[in-house]
Structure formats: C-alpha cells, structure tokens
Amino acid sequence: MHISEGVLSPGVLIAGAGLTAAGVAVGLRRLENEEIPSVGILSAAFFVASLVHVPVGPSSVHLILNGLLGLILGWKAFPAILVGLALQALLFQFGGITTLGVNTLNMALPAVVCHYLFSWGVGIGARRLVFILSAFAGGCCAVFLSSMLVGFSLYLTGEAFLPVAKVVVAAHLPVMVIEGGLTAVCALFLRQVKPELLEGAYVPKLSSQPQNGSG
Amino acid sequence: MARGRRLFFCLLFTALWLVFFNAPALAHKVMIFAWVEGDTIHTQSKFSGGKRVKGAQVLVFDSEGNQLLEGKTDEQGAFSFKVPKKTDLKVVLRASMGHMAEWKIPAEEITAVGDVSGGSLPEVGVKVATEEAAHSTDVRSSGGLSVPETMGLSRQEVEEIINKCLDRKLTPIIDMLVNAMDRGPKVTEVIGGIGYIFGLVGVALYFANRRKRE
User: Exposed e or buried b for every residue in A30-44, given b needs 16+ CB within 10 A?
Assistant: First the structure.
C-alpha cells in the first residue's frame, strides 16, 4: 500500500502533497484539546498495524486500520495517519518522504469517506447488529477505497488503470475481510469501555463544562 | 469511568505489545540484491520480511540511464543475466502496486563481460592456456631450460582463474548475506516510533494548555 519513491511523476506527488496538506489543516482545525491523546493513541496503533503481515494472496500485504481511524476520528485521521506514515518512512523505509503526501491521501481520504458513510451506525444508540455491520463495512470499505486510490495514483503516472487496480484490490481482499472484523471488534470493545470516543457528543459535552480541570 | 479508561489503555497497550512481539516484524517494502559471479550477475528480490517477489520486472540501466535489458524474477525471486557491458550498472526492481527498489553495481566489481550470443568463451580460453602451460612445463623439464615467457599463463589469465575460484568460494557467503540482509523493522525502531508519537502528543497538549491559560 505504500508507494515507493521514484515511481510517481512529480505532478502526482505535488497534487497529493497539496491535498494532504488541506486535509491535515481541516483535521487540525477540528481537533479539540481533549481529543489529542486519543488521536495520538490511534496514530500509534496505525503506525504499528503495518507490521502485522497478512500472509495470504500473491503479494505481501499488511493491516492498515484506516477504517477504524476514520470511524473514530473523522477528518482528524489525516494528521494521525500523516504522523504514522512519516515515522514508518523514516524508521522502516516503507514508502518514502517524497511520496508521503500521496500515501497519506491514499489512506486518509478513504478514512474520512467511511466516517461520513458509516459512523452514523457506530454510535452507542445503534442496535447491536447495525453497529457491528457498519463497523465491519467501515473497515472493509476504507481498505477497498485505498486500494483503488493506489491504482489511480499509478494510473495518473502512466500505468493502465484496470490491471493495476485489479492487482491491488485482489492483493488486499484478505486484508479487507480481516480489517472489517478487527474494526468491528475494536468498535464493540470501545462501546463497552469508552463509549465517548464513538459519540459525536463527546466534544460538546466537555466543552460546555467550565474549562478548568481537564488538562 | 476512570476505571474503564484505565482498562482501555491497559488493553490497548497489551494489544500493541502482542502485535509486534508475536508477529515477526513483516511488512511492505521490496528490495533487490545483486552480485557478480564471473560474467553473470545474479539478483535476488524480496519483500521486507523475506517473502520472494515473484514475476516482477527487473530493469538494468547503465550509468547514463540507458536501459540495457529487462527480465522477470522467477518463483524464487531470482533473476540472472550476462553482463551486458563493463560500466556502472543500476539494477531496478519494479514490483506491482508501486513498489520499487534498486541496487548499484560499480564497474570495478565487473570482471568479465558476458558473451550475450551464448557460449562461455573465457572458460575455453583458460582451458587452452592451462593446457599450453602444462605442455610448456613438460618441455621445460625435459629440456632443462627455464624460460619464463613460455609459461603461457599471462597475468590476465591468472586473474581470471583466481576470480573463478573466489566466486565459487564466496557463493555461500553471498547467499548468507542475501538472507541476512533484511530482518525487517527492529523492536527498538517500533518502540522509538511509538515514543515519537507520544512525544508529539505531549507537545500538542503543552501548547493546548498554554493557549488555554492565556
């Protein structure tokens, strides 16, 4: 899923970096002080998830977890994923510094899309079946959209879209199922233990209180 | 609620811990390793973590960036080719899904240029030279005359023979290097990365708090 350096044309790299900068700006604007720790923890989870190798299929693929980040964080997934990817590029040499923008966009944009599509179902009030299904769909869909975006990035650089996209999507089919399941399990767990994370009401509830002792 | 939060963090850390100590660090990066053996260059391509890259495109460029030849890796991730010419070579691996890696071979490492039309001429040459040498030795011993020029083994031929021997002896060592080249991300790097993220969270909270006070 990480596109290496030297594969994409400069135009694609710059466009990706620009869009990512915009996404990160939106994410940071919406970031409330109380949410900083949870963004950091999810960023760490994303950073580590890429080390979990899925030994199925023709290629080497790993977990991404962008669906989970999207469902919980929404636009704030952009800064979280940017930090995770930057550290992966620096420490593990996955992807690269020049492709950081494109890679962030490829993983964070699907997260935001999934947030808008499925986060209504992932609330405390939702019925259990609806909850599980939307979490699963969120995890699954984010990986699928990411695969399509990787194919699209390569297409913009001159490769034929359909064959590349087919390869990428096929390689990530097992990951999609696993991520869907994992996202559902994580969301269920959070609903039991820390339901504020899943509720949009989290921020207003806190900010309506006098701001003194929460930091 | 505080109890729940503490439980959440405990479980999250346990999960993170299990994740990177159970799964041997494996992930998404390709690499190619190339070495010279006589007039042939062997390459070995792997994903980070050791899985072989099958059926990927390998391109060979000279120092000016002209493409000299291309091929595909086999089931073992290997691809071998005859040296096209004596120059700095750049071997580029293009795996699917936007993965790319390269390996440079400096001209000094290339000892013999392969005959692309087939048939290993240098070998034949050496054999002839060795026979000549044996012959001339016979002549010398029977004649009792020692003439260094008739030894028949020129400096270049000796070099070739030595290179051959060295290649043969070094092959297992090179194999070992190929296998040892990548062990994937280390635990220290993983912990370092997580430390960075928590550090960033700390910095963000610091500024957030300062803003709140002002």
Answer: ebebbbbebbbbbbb
Enter the ipTM.
0.76
What does the alpha-carbon distance between residue B70 and residue B65 come to, in Å, rounded to a whole number? 13
Residue A5 vs residues A66, B26, B109: alpha-carbon distances, Å: 22, 20, 27
Do residue A48 and residue B23 have CB atoms under 8 angstroms apart?
no
Hey, what CATH class is B30-116 in? mainly beta
Whether A185 and A139 have beta carbons less than 8 Å apart is answered as no
List CB contacts of B46: < 8 A, sequence separation 6 or more.
B30, B31, B33, B52, B53, B77, B181, B182
- pLDDT (0 to 100) of residue B131: 47
Domain boundaries, chain B: 30-116, 121-151, 186-214
CB B185 within 8 A of CB B25: yes
Distance from CA of A23 to the nearest CA of B (A): 18
Cross-chain residue pair A94–B27, CB shorter than 8 Å? yes
Chain A residues with CB under 8 Å of B185 CB are 51, 91-92
Model pLDDT, residue B85: 79
Name B186's Cβ contacts closer than 8 Å, sequence gap at least 6.
Answer: B25
How far is the alpha carbon of A116 from chain B, nearest alpha carbon, in Å? 25
CATH class as words, domain A10-199: mainly alpha
A80 HSE (CA, 13 A, CB side): 35
Taking the C-alpha atoms of residue B21 and residue B185, their distance in angstroms, rounded to an integer, is 12
Stated as kind and residue range, the H or E segment containing A54 is strand A53-54
Which tokens hold the place of A97? Answer: 């510094």
Q: What residues of chain A, 76 to 115, have a C-beta less than 8 Å from chain B? A: 83-84, 87-88, 91-94
What's the pTM value of the predicted model, to 2 decimals?
Answer: 0.70
